[in-house]
Amino acid sequence: MTSSPPQGSSESAPASEAEAAGPVTINIEWLSDCAGCHVAIVDLHEKILTVLDAVQLGRCPVLTDIKDYPRAKVGLVSGAIRTEHDRHAAQAMRQSCDVIVAWGTCAVYGGIAGAGVLHTPQELFDAVYRHNKTTAGDRVPDREVSPLEATVSPLDSVIDVDLYLPGCPPHPTFILEALLTLVEGRPPKATKESVCARCLRQMTKSEVTEVRPYSQGVADPDRCFLSQGYLCLGSVTLDRCLAPCPRNGVPCTGCAGATMQILTEPNRDLRTELAERMSRLTQIPREEIVRRVEFGAKTHYAYTMATSMVGEKPTFLIRQWLADSDAEAENA
Question: Which residue did the predictor score with more confidence, 64 or 204?
């Protein structure tokens, strides 16, 4: 969990007071996302029993048939603002809930849908419905479908958000902590550490001279991916996952979003921070690492390009990077 607790919740209420207040009412809304955050609740397994008796669900599209927005203490909102329906639903949640939690990377940063900021709705419609070999005809859906907004936005671009829980989806450990925080009325327990803090791999100096594609070779399970020439975003990604990917042989893709240092400091950037570390661990020139990250920008910035904390940085020139990449491919 990230950010400060809402005013008045810095201390846990006495047990008698909490009991007198009854269960915490929760509304849940699902905007433009894949539902992974909702499924992640199931991954709590028996631990969910520690909070079920203390909460009462109101609106919850995946579990209840409640169409309106009843009053609730807490509102959990997953997904990005991509359609007019998303905007209206977010506003209805804000009006009906005392505390709003941006739940998951799509709500916090815009998530995977954030790649839509690089294209107009018309370009997307043409690519999907008009110039696609797998689509019969060229009719764009226009009935019973909410119109797309001009771009993709994180939740706090439309409504005020009280707490942020990034992750794609957030790890059950952080979900449980978030629920307990809200139920018990106390500050969240979360650090600003990167994924590297949980990774067991060792950073060692190597003689590697080029960036390797993930499909090349089998990485040494005990050494840092950067030391072996593989691009891994663990050192520039906030830990809201407990590092399951690098622990299991897969480089981090940055799904929980950039570290607070990168997000809050205008002159720090994912590609340059990563290149600085990787060039110190290998013989690969810093400029080459920066270039490789830029050419794969749609992948490396996939989860955060829609948030102003990344997309509006003067160092974020993704359209130029993509144009350079296309030009190099044509001349190859």
Answer: 204
Structure tokens belonging to residue 332: 């190859």
Q: Which ranges in the chain belong to alpha helices (H)?
A: 15-21, 36-42, 49-52, 84-96, 105-109, 121-125, 172-184, 244-247, 260-264, 270-281, 286-295, 297-300, 308-311, 318-331
Instruction: Write the pLDDT tens digit of every residue in 43-82.
Output: 887 887 778 788 888 998 887 888 899 999 999 999 999 9
Whole-Å CA distances, 198 to 40, 71, 204, 237, 239: 20, 39, 17, 12, 8
Mean pLDDT for 222-250 is: 96
pLDDT digits (tens, 9 = 90+) for 118-167: 999 999 999 988 888 888 877 888 888 899 999 999 999 999 999 999 99
3-state SS, one letter per residue, for 161-175: CCEEECCCCCCHHHH
Q: What one-letter code names the amino acid at 312?
A: E
Whether 199 and 246 have beta carbons less than 8 Å apart is answered as yes
Query: If pLDDT is split at 50, 70 and 90, which confidence band does 41 have?
Result: confident
- CB-CB contact of 154 with 148 (8 Å): no
Strand order in the sheet with 163-165: 55-57, 24-30, 72-78, 97-103, 163-165
Q: What pLDDT, on a 0 to 100 scale, did the predictor assign at position 50?
A: 77
- For 149, the enclosing helix (H) or strand (E) is strand 148-153
β partners of residue 74: 26, 99
What structural domains and CATH numbers belong to the chain?
15-184 (3.40.50.700), 195-331 (no CATH)
Q: How far apart are CA 70 and CA 58, in angstroms?
A: 7
DSSP state of 280: H
pLDDT digits (tens, 9 = 90+) for 245-266: 999 999 999 999 999 999 999 8
Alpha helices (H) in 134-253, listed in sequence order: 172-184, 244-247
Comparing C-alpha atoms, which of 99, 101, 73, 77 is closest to residue 90? 77
Structure tokens that stand for 219 in this block: 């990485």
